[in-house]
Automatic annotation (TrEMBL):
Keyword Oxidoreductase: yes
Extent of Gly residues compositional bias: 19-28
Annotated protein name in UniProt: Uncharacterized protein
Organism: Micromonospora purpureochromogenes
Region Disordered, residue ranges: 1-35
Biased composition (Low complexity): 1-18
Keywords, sorted A to Z: Oxidoreductase
Database matches in InterPro entries: FAD-bd_PCMH_sub1
Length: 87
């Protein structure tokens, strides 16, 4: 698993541990974008990218052109500690 993929998985767990509504965690389903986005925006500020943001296309560009998928949100975490919920 790449560091980027690990960050995406761990971010949901960290948010659940921090009590963020809609976060993935024990006994919870996957969050909806509309439920998680405001809380993530509060935590990350302009480091949370949405499809309407200017930096979103560059952040979601993949090397494999056969893949035609894009995440609903992109979280640009500072470091592994932030992803783990300690930062």
């Amino acid at each position: 698993m790449t560091a980027r993929a690990a960050a995406r998985v761990s971010a949901g767990r960290a948010l659940a541990g921090a009590g963020v509504p809609g976060a993935v965690g024990p006994g919870r389903g996957a969050p909806t974008t509309s439920a998680a986005a405001p809380d993530l925006r509060e935590l990350l500020g302009d480091r949370l990218l949405r499809p309407a943001d200017a930096d979103y296309p560059a952040a979601t560009r993949v090397w494999n052109g056969a893949v035609d998928r894009a995440p609903a949100l992109v979280a640009r975490c500072r470091d592994a500690d932030e992803v783990a919920g300690g930062g």
